[in-house]
Specification:
By secondary structure, the chain is of the alpha/beta class. It has 11 helices and 12 strands. The strands form 2 sheets. The chain has a 6-stranded parallel beta sheet, with helices on both faces. It has a 6-stranded antiparallel beta barrel with strand order 7-8-11-10-9-12. The two termini are 30 Å apart.
């Protein structure tokens, strides 16, 4: 898959079949559209293309918006590449871009830049300045400029009954089973392993501290989770704590993973962990011994849980 950081960077000479959207989460609803898109290109001498945006349009058009996103740019790119997409264009969204008229958008971007032959779009898609144009307008532009428009019906999309907002709500409440069902995969947290206070090592449970650089990334509710990662060529499970470490009077949010049956120096490496399930809330214990006993219970629970799913 080729990734382009703006529309002007796109340089393929092939005709394209494309779609447009933020695709935050690349959830099962999005996947239906993307699978259709990729299948279409197999039946034509065309490349598949997705035009998406960063920052998220709501961050730009609604400056008071506190929206957190399900994917970092890197996570979204990896998910789309695994699906078999040919081209991903991540265009910087700003107010100037939002002021393009619908026809300017169609002519200068879809037709001139992307050489679009067909666009596959949701029935409720709106575009152009003030989101004034709809699917009917797009069909008329298609007739004018010589490209086909395929509409994903309300029935197809509504049958999935999922939205990025529903998934964000589920993750914010820590209901990972619901979030992961809607996503079609386990929620991802990606970051760099940094050196922490090494308190876990002193109590017999060494942890990898994950620093997530992207402040727009949605972090699940504080608590203890079962996770897995791909490390040094194998799948490794672990328990992850998200929170303030109140038992040792922590003040800053940390994300720490204690990997089961795995021991290696991971400092300064980039990793992704898949968040499988939530075990419990973060708690403040009256002693380190009680904390250690609870972590052991968490490990035992995680191991029995993992045995049922592998």
């Amino acid at each position: 898959m080729q990734v382009f950081s703006s529309i002007s960077d796109f340089n393929s000479t092939k005709k394209t079949i494309g779609t447009i959207g933020t695709f935050d989460g690349v959830h099962i609803g999005h996947q239906k559209i993307i699978e259709k898109l990729i299948q279409e290109t197999k039946n034509a001498d065309c490349e598949s293309l997705i035009l998406t945006f960063f920052p998220h349009p709501r961050m730009v058009l609604h400056e008071t918006s506190s929206i957190k996103l399900l994917n970092t740019i890197g996570e979204k790119s990896c998910l789309l590449e695994k699906m078999g997409l040919d081209n991903l264009v991540i265009h910087p969204f700003d107010k100037e871009f939002s002021n393009l008229s619908a026809e300017e958008f169609v002519k200068t971007i879809l037709v001139d830049a992307f050489n679009i032959q067909k666009i596959i779009i949701g029935y409720d898609h709106r575009f152009g300045k003030n989101r004034a144009a709809n699917i009917d307008d797009l069909i008329l532009f298609g007739e004018k400029y010589g490209f086909e428009v395929e509409q994903i019906s309300a029935q197809e999309i509504d049958s999935v009954s999922v939205s990025s907002t529903k998934i964000r709500d589920a993750i914010a409440y820590g209901t990972m089973a619901v979030a992961n069902e809607y996503l079609g995969y386990d929620y991802l947290l990606s970051g760099k392993i940094i050196q922490g206070k090494q308190l876990g090592r002193t109590i017999g449970f060494p942890t990898a501290n994950i620093k997530i650089e992207e402040n727009y990334k949605l972090i699940p509710k504080n608590g203890v989770y079962i996770v897995k990662s791909h490390l040094q060529g194998k799948t490794v499970f672990g328990i992850m704590n998200i929170g303030l470490n109140p038992t040792v009077n922590g003040e800053n949010l940390s994300i720490e993973v204690h990997f089961l049956d795995f021991n290696a120096d991971l400092y300064n490496t980039q990793i992704s962990v898949s968040v499988i399930a939530r075990i419990r809330d973060e708690e403040k214990f009256s002693s380190i011994d009680l904390l250690k006993a609870q972590i052991q219970k968490d490990k035992n629970y995680a191991k029995s849980f993992i045995e049922k799913i592998v």
